[in-house]
Structures are given as structure tokens and as C-alpha cells.
Amino acid sequence: MNETFYPAQPAPSSGLKGINFVTLLALLVAVIALASSMLSAMNMQYAVTPESIRIRSGFSTKEIPLDAVTDVWRPDRLTGGVRLFGTATSNLRTGRFRFNETGDITLYATKLDSLVVIDVSDARYGLTPVDPERLMEAIETRSPGTFQPAGGTGRATASMLIPLALVAVAAVSALYVTGAVGRFPKALRYELGPDGVTIRTGLSPVRIGYDELERVEVASPKGFPLRLYGTAVGSLLWGRFRWPDAGPNLRLYATRIKPLVLMHLRDGRTFGITPEEDERFVEAVRQRMR
Known about the structure:
This protein is α+β, with helices and mostly antiparallel strands.
């Protein structure tokens, strides 16, 4: 005859809500940043008017007054490039960077071999037009004109496919993990069948045969578990842990830290669970082990 035991109710904890909030916030920031970068790859453009240089990139337009420009020049080469903040792919670089030849610089760039550096009193900007010399002349003579980035926007857009795929994989993985953690206390069950114990976690069930068990007990081990792999949020413990006083090779599927039902296996593994009726669970297992 099968018997099902339900876990003890977990203690109230804001940890799980905090993990979900931080995870979703991080995903939102990543999606916004990626969307901005992809839009930059599609719509980047430089325009010179009699009063300013206008740089369209992503969701924003940067305007640099020509009266504030102190110098316009081109470096012979670029070495020691370091990204401080922003996007860096083979055909798109936006944000804060540092090179040996320029120092800190804000880039609205595609192919760096056409870099034009614009200095103002308190900042430095880098643009990469198709025709660098014509852009420099337009700035110096205040001649209106519109300039496309070198390499075009198509190649830059294509270069964003890899980070897009990475963010998509990260988003799916993070949502799956946080969702699994959220379902864990609701899905957790301990079932006694004719041949063994089945721990149902909402993912793959864990099965332990009665012939594998050496002993089972209710215990309150000294100390606290150290997570090796899995989840430890408040009183939710799921995965592999180190807890010498509980037993070697410890796996926990628990909704509280103490007391635990410890199932010691003949192969040296230990499983820790928290059925609400722990004494009745232990007695039922011992009867089935005979």
C-alpha cells in the first residue's frame, strides 16, 4: 500500500521573493541594454548642423555644440582597448572605452579604423563615419551634412545575434531555475511505495529502495548545512550539502533545517527530508525495511 507524506510548512522568508525580484530585474536590465544596442546597430547616424553635431544611437540622440569642440583629429592607431561600460562586438562599440592613444572616450562606433575623435572641454567622443575626412571638414566649416557609420548598419545588426542568443538562453535558464525553486515547497512529496521511498520535487523524482537503506532516524544535527550545489533560501534546502553531523554525501529535500529525517544508505549517501509527521514516517519506513 502506498503512503504519501507532505513536508512541513516552510518558515516565512523573503529570500525567495528577493531572488525572483533580483533575477527579473537583472533580466529586464539585460533586455533593455540589448534592445538599445540592437537599435544602435540599426539607426546609428551622425549629422552636422551649423550649431552642433547630432549623434543618433539607439533610444537617444547626443548633441555636441560646435562651440564646445576644442579639437577634431584621427589617431594613427589604437592599442590597449578596454571596455569600461557599454557594448563591444566586432561591428559595434557604444559606451565608455579606453585606449592608449585616446584615454577615456565615449564611442558611437562601428569599424574603428575610421575613428574620428572629437574633443570638448570635459569629454572625448569617437565616431566612425564612412568618410572620416568629409565629416572632419564638415565640422570645421560648419557645413550641414548627414553621415552613415562605416560598414553600414546591417553588419552591426548581425554582430548582435550572438549576445541576443546569450541573453535569451540566460533568460530561459534563470526563469526556469527561479520557477523551479518557487514550485519546490508546493510540489514536494515523500511517497512510500512497495519497493522504496520516492521523493517528488517537481523535477525528476528521487527513488531510494528499502534494500538500500541502512537506517532511518529523526535527528537535529549540530551546526548548519553548507551548500555545495543546489538551493538554500531561508528554510528551503534542495540539493547537495556538507554537514558532517548529519552524514556523508548529504542530499537535502527539506522545508526546514531541523529536525530532519535522515536516511542513511549502505553506499555512504545520506538523504535529509522533512515530512510533517516525521515520527510516523520513520516508523512506516522501518516496518517496510523488515
